[in-house]
Amino acid sequence: MADTPAISRDDVAHLARLARIDLPEDSLDHYAEQLGVILGAVAQVSEVAADDVPATSHPMPLVNVFRADVVRPSLTNAEALSGAPSVEDERFRVPRILDEE
Amino acid sequence: MSTRTNDAVLPYDEVVARFDPVLGLEVHVELGTATKMFCGCPTEFGAPPNTQVCPVCLGLPGSLPAVNEVAVESAIRIGLALNCSIAEWCRFARKNYFYPDMPKNFQTSQYDEPIAFDGWLDVDVETDEGMRTFRVGIERAHMEEDTGKTSHQGGATGRIHGADYSLVDYNRAGIPLIEIVTKPVEGTGKYAPQVAKAYVASLREILRGLGVSDVKMEQGSLRCDANVSLRPSPDAPLGTRTETKNVNSLRSIERAVRYEMTRQAAILDAGGRVTQETRHWHEDTGITTSGREKSDAEDYRYFPEPDLVPIAPSREWVERLRASLPENPHVHRARLQAGWGISDFDMASVVNAGAVEVVEATIAAGADQAAARKWWLGELLRIANERGAELEDLPITPVEVARVEALVADGALNDKLARQVIEGVLAGEGDPDQVVAARGLAVVSDDGPLLAAIDDALGAQPDVAEKIRGGKVAAAGAIVGAVMKATRGQADAARVRELLLERLGVSDQA
Ligand SMILES: [Zn+2]
After folding, report:
1. Extents of the domains making up chain B
2. What residues in chain A have per-residue pLDDT under 70?
3. What is the pTM assigned to this prediction?
């Protein structure tokens, strides 16, 4: 199953970029192989699950779990910011963003 | 970021003669629920930063979301009002991205299982051949959550380019949002900008009628992104589209679509290719500028949200909600028009000015329909346009307009004074009666002061007095004008004229 990696070196580079992980060029093959093994294992499950078994995202047969639209106390500003590495002007301070406004 | 540009544009007539536009409109509406989509934090606008937040909407470890039932109900009602099918079963999905406006590193949204899909909305547009109804297909309406507000610091302009860091307020993060996406809107030809505007105006009317949102574009509770593409003919494949963001008034929607059409046409005309990208609308200069190109950064790796169970609205629930829908605005308008007894053209003017609700409310407050339309489509529309505001956002209520009109009808105010009263109300000086009292605005109905002013004017212009005595009644205008000026416009001009002619013993047969 895992003889041919289901994930390419380029796929790994792409995923790393999306996840903002700085992977060195020379480790791409290494991760491609490891991820390939994992995907292979998942593929085995697919072999067992025939077409009559629907894809499952939620193992419990529950639907429509709702909350009433009633206000509950929020945190205070100080509590909300207490875990933030950097704070300014009652807001979370984050590195500059190179994107749209 | 500069809002200037060197982009060429093609004259609009040429654009529509040579290209066929296709639109796609995405509207985000913030629901007016008391609490957020997945937690009990309040949703009030304008609270101090980061005071309407909790572990759930801050994405703290171990917290679990719980769906707001009223938000789901609102989503279903919106779907039904837009003639959509309601999903029998659907899930939330995580839209993953790295951007600090969501503290979770994902936005909880819906992906390929929207709660409502495949509907339509009819919108009326004034064309060269009279009113025409365009049917806008609705692709889907799905539930998601709003993002936090980022402000960029340190850059020269405060905008993102050159910003050194950003500050984030998560009060808005998690407020229920419904995204409504149209199918490609084709066949509009040169009316594309008007159809876009009419669609958003109709949608806003429907949402307001449903009572699910305050739909205030200037506060961002209703936001529109406009996708525009051009192709050489209606048979040709779709052209490359751009997505214009930050279009925050009805007027801007029309202008932004029109501008994008002229800009893209100039590129195609020069043999170039339109870049698929996000563009930003600039209200001040009336142009769009390039945002970012679509790239693999747009790969959101959606997957079903494991922390929320699926939504499966029972058919009984859906039918109960359908039965409770208010009258469709299209039908409502037809009923109003018949009641007011006005022409299609006059009704279209009311609709195009976004004045249906305010005119209706002014009439309900006692004004007659002609007077209500006169004020809203005349003086008030002029002021609204000057301010770049919507009529309903002017700081004057239909009840106040009706009161001003009642004062005119009673003869306590003339038109000129009534305009001053309106001006006073808009300037925050109080209600119409308070403005009348404070500014001392009232028609001088006592003949005594009028006669005194007439005598003064006659004394100052003896030659004119002589002409009138000699039968040149047309010359009376100069004296009436002088009296009006002397009484600061507070006299009834017709009465002044009457008294003047009486004074001079001249009959009003010119
Ligand atoms: Zn919260």
Report:
1. 12-321, 327-439, 447-504
2. 1-5, 97-101
3. 0.77
Contacts B44 to A, Cβ<8 Å: none
Residues of B in contact with A19 (CB under 8 A): 98
Closest-approach residue (CA) in chain A for B150: A101
Position A73 in a domain: no
Angstrom distance (rounded) from CA B100 to CA B154? 17
- Residue A1 counted as domain residue: yes
* Unique residue bearing structure tokens 């779990």: A65
Q: Write the CATH number for A43.
A: 1.10.20
Question: Are B309 and A75 inside 8 Å of each other by CB?
Answer: no
Our CA-based measurement puts residue A17 at a distance from the nearest CA of chain B, in whole angstroms, of 8
For A34, the domain range is: 1-50
Query: What's the CA gap between B271 and B248, in Å, rounded?
Result: 32
For residue A67, being part of any structural domain is answered with no
Residues facing residue B247 across a β-bridge: B224
The DSSP line for B431-451 is SHHHHHHHHT---B--HHHHH
Going from the Cα of A66 to the center of ligand 1, the distance in angstroms, rounded, reads 15
Chain B neighbors of A63, CB-CB under 8 A: 89, 309-312
* Residues B49 and B169 sit within 8 Å (Cβ to Cβ): yes
Residue of B nearest to A82 (CA): B50
Q: Do B280 and A101 touch (CB under 8 A)?
A: yes
Domain B447-504 sits in CATH 1.10.10: yes
- Condensed to tens digits (0 to 9), the pLDDT of residues B152-169 reads 887 655 555 555 889 999
Indicate whether A45 belongs to any domain: yes
Binary contact (A97, B299; C-beta < 8 A): no
The reply to whether B158 touches chain A by the CB within 8 Å rule is no
Total number of domains constituting chain A: 1
Per-residue pLDDT, averaged over B473-477, amounts to 85
Q: Kindly report, residue by residue over B102-120, the tens digit of the pLDDT.
A: 999 899 999 999 999 999 9
How far does the CA of residue A65 sit from the closest CA of chain B (Å)?
7
State the best of B43, B50, B58, B96 to mutate against chain A, taking most chain A CBs within 10 Å.
B50
CB of B356 closer than 8 Å to CB of B205: yes
Strand pairing report for B176-182 and B20-30: antiparallel
Rg, Å, chain A Cα set: 22
Residue B179 Cα to ligand 1 midpoint, Å, equals: 21
* Interval B69-82: pLDDT, tens: 999 999 999 999 99
Residues ≥6 apart with Cβ < 8 Å to B23: B182, B184, B185, B188, B192, B195, B196, B226, B227, B228, B257
Instruction: Output DSSP code: residue B326.
Output: P
pLDDT, mean of residues B240-257 = 92
